[in-house]
Amino acid sequence: MVAPQKSNRKINPQPYQMLAFCNDLTLKDDFYLNIVDWSSFDTLSLGLDCSVYLWNTGTSKIIEYIKLNLKMTKLCDLGFPYTISSVKWFPQNFQLAVGTTEGKVQIWDAQKLMKVRDFDGHRSRVGTLEWNKNILSTGSGDRIIYHRDQRSPDDYIQAFTGHKSEVCGLKWNLEGDQLASGGNANELFLWEGMNPTSVRKLEGHKAAIRAISWSPHARNLLASGGGHLDRQIRFWNTVDGRTLACYNAKSQVCNLQWSSTVNEIVSTHGWWKNDVMIWKYPSMQKIATLKGHTYRVLYFSISPNGEDIVTGAGGDDNTLRFWKIFNTPSKNKKTENKCSWKLDGLIR
């Protein structure tokens, strides 16, 4: 019998940068928030309380430049009684979608620092946002998924109903013709285009489903992760709804993200381990385990070049950490520097 080959790739187990929040700037330890996103032009958006901040991650390429010029720009301050519950960059331009706990959805221009559009409709927290070309899909605690189009004067062009509890995960596939939605009532639905009737319900998880990721390497391959009463990562054939594989992650699954360049998937976890894991698919061989966060790793995004990830945790951790995990051809490599910065007092 031939033993399976081990991966020769080495991943630095330490983050190359850590941003520590203090005073009034806090990351909330809330499973239903999605308040960190990394744009295609290398800018991080952070939803903190009633404000959205922007930070140019490109400054981390030169250590001296960070020390002198690290700044966070305040994109907006919605004021009382609003609280930011989700942010999501439009993939091709400088527009950012913002959701609030009060059910509001707004579009902001990050270059002009101005609001572009307001959308109404939701009656509860908007915890998940997802773009599909010009369509913005929004999921809420009111159990409804609305689809918005800035070209339409209406607040929404279609509504999906069927969830029995809060919608906490939304992901369109790369082709833009299938939407997966996860809910707090252990539900995972599949939708086709703008058809308001779900084509399939994928059953098996025993807790809330927030972590969803479509494979960029095989059509109709979906990964999903369950909450702390489930702790499973499942892989599905969305054509017939079959479970292809199921793995016990042994802790709450908070995020899943497939690499665009290699057949590997990243998972972040909460109770009980608070780890970041990189897995080889389909063997689910563990390539690396990244430790350091002391609270649930609820916040996650991947860099536009597909090499780096940012992870965030609230509570007493209250940090964002940047890790280099994938190798892709690039002329502009980030310089790895084991440094941390306090974000208090760096806002302009």
Automatic annotation (TrEMBL):
GO biological-process terms attached to the record: anaphase-promoting complex-dependent catabolic process; positive regulation of anaphase-promoting complex-dependent catabolic process
One MF term in the entry's GO annotations: ubiquitin ligase activator activity
Family listed: Belongs to the WD repeat CDC20/Fizzy family.
Residues annotated as signal peptide: none
Gene3D superfamilies tied to this protein: YVTN repeat-like/Quinoprotein amine dehydrogenase
Annotated WD repeat ranges: 84-118, 160-192, 290-325
Keyword Oxidoreductase on entry: no
Keyword set, alphabetical order: Cell cycle, Repeat, WD repeat
Name of the protein: WD40 repeat-like protein
Keyword Cell cycle: yes
GO CC term, one of those recorded: anaphase-promoting complex
PANTHER family: CELL DIVISION CYCLE 20 CDC20 FIZZY -RELATED, FIZZY-RELATED PROTEIN HOMOLOG
PROSITE patterns in alphabetical order: WD_REPEATS_2 (PS50082), WD_REPEATS_REGION (PS50294)
Coiled coil regions in record: none
Domain CDC20/Fizzy WD40: 27-323
Any Pfam family: WD40_CDC20-Fz
